[in-house]
């Protein structure tokens, strides 16, 4: 293990994981040189680890010699039960919400200090929305994030504030006091609104999928619309209804339909 | 690295990957003992590797001390570009197909000798369908698989036949000659049908999402219905239209809508 001798502070495992971490959300392929630069690994080490990952299927190497995340990692990632159970419970309600609004509909959970998208529904009639499943969002600047934060353990608010509240647009709530009030309002009416706080021109309305004791958000559902057609009075109750349906469905064990596994 | 001395034939990387491989599609959590049994690793090695994976976020360990696939792996898996680009191109057409049929709609790609589900749309009105994104399906026994196989390099057929054509129901095409004819018919009419060939009671109708030169399937789209309501004359053209729309959309670079990344 020559790499280990040269880099005594890093285990082999951590270097394998560093190779996977090197791929960002918008990367369509990394050359070996880019992989070395991002991981700090020596070319021989990076090449060997990448080759093992390619053989396993976690990475793919194209005709252009660039590495990409492979379908084996997609397959394993889909086995995250935090995702699967929620997504299966929520999907029918996301579909209904999409059919009613024909706007972009999202499902997210909280992962530490971020919201992470699990699912997204969009149609040919919805506005183009670059947000994708697997993307991470800040908690304080999105409807989704505020719905999750409003129904989380109370210390989380202080942690988020301590980390700082980055500004994304002139409308981002960067003051702890304003954010605190927005969260209280979210708890009051059962849904959160973020008006151009993360990106200009869009409004998101989000409701928490609550645990059976109604104290914690297991997930959140949001609709993202152009600010020109944001009708909060109409969207709020629709999103809330979808989130309540998903919560009820999630707490009940799924029924298996008669033999419809075929594709 | 005591594990390495005891198991000289396995690299550390292969053991990390064996830990990930241990999680099957239906596992909701593995104990350390189960992890050892499935990977063949010594408890100390399995525990150390799992702890590193937990710290990274690729595994999660619940209050019940069982390991689960974590959201970090979901996040990275979603970065597989083979999935993302196709899914984004296909999603609006899957939605339309769902709105027209209100049946289970799927998107899959071929990964070696299997079809792997990328996406699935289902609603409260569709029959329960245990098939999920990330699942693997045999090529010869599903509509999805036959659509992919009919538009693949010709040698693939021989490879699949050589591996054997397992029987799932009395209707599975286990004869190479019958399968060859079904694939010819699929190429002729532009869509494949599998009638109770993978599970009794369901029929799937699938069409390939073809490359620009129309010679290879990049993916396939299917609708799965109860055999009692399988109207092939109606479903075939609908699925084909959706697949053609996705193909056209995929070959065109995606437009970014005006600032709708917010959640």
TrEMBL record, chains A, B:
One Pfam assignment: IclR_C
**Molecular function per GO:** DNA binding
Signal peptide per UniProt: none
Keyword tags: DNA-binding, Transcription, Transcription regulation
Keyword Lipoprotein set for record: no
Residue stretches making up the HTH iclR-type domain: 10-71
Residue stretches making up the IclR-ED domain = 72-256
Q: Origin, by domain of life?
A: Bacteria
- Report if keyword Transcription regulation is assigned: yes
Name the chain's protein.
Answer: DNA-binding IclR family transcriptional regulator
């Amino acid at each position: 293990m020559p790499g280990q001798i040269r880099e005594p502070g890093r285990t082999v495992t951590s270097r394998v994981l560093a190779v996977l971490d090197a791929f960002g959300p918008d990367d369509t392929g990394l050359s070996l040189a880019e992989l070395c630069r991002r991981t700090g690994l020596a070319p021989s080490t990076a090449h060997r680890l990448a080759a093992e990952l390619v053989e396993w299927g976690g990475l793919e190497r194209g005709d252009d010699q660039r590495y990409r995340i492979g379908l084996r990692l997609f397959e394993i990632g889909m086995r995250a039960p935090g995702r699967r159970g929620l997504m299966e419970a929520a999907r029918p309600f996301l579909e209904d919400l999409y059919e009613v609004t024909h706007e972009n509909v999202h499902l997210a959970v909280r992962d530490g200090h971020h919201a992470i998208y699990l699912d997204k529904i969009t149609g040919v009639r919805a506005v183009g929305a670059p947000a994708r499943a697997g993307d991470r969002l800040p908690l304080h600047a999105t409807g989704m994030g505020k719905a999750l934060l409003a129904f989380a353990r109370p210390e989380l608010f202080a942690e988020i504030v301590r980390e700082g509240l980055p500004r994304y647009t002139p409308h981002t709530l960067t003051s702890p006091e304003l954010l605190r009030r927005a969260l209280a309002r979210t708890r009051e009416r059962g849904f959160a609104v973020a008006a151009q706080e993360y990106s200009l021109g869009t409004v998101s309305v989000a409701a928490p999928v609550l645990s059976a004791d109604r104290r914690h958000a297991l997930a959140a559902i949001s609709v993202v619309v152009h600010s020109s057609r944001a009708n909060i009075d109409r969207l709020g109750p629709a999103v809330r209804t979808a989130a309540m349906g998903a919560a009820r469905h999630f707490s009940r064990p799924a029924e298996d339909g008669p033999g419809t596994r075929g594709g």
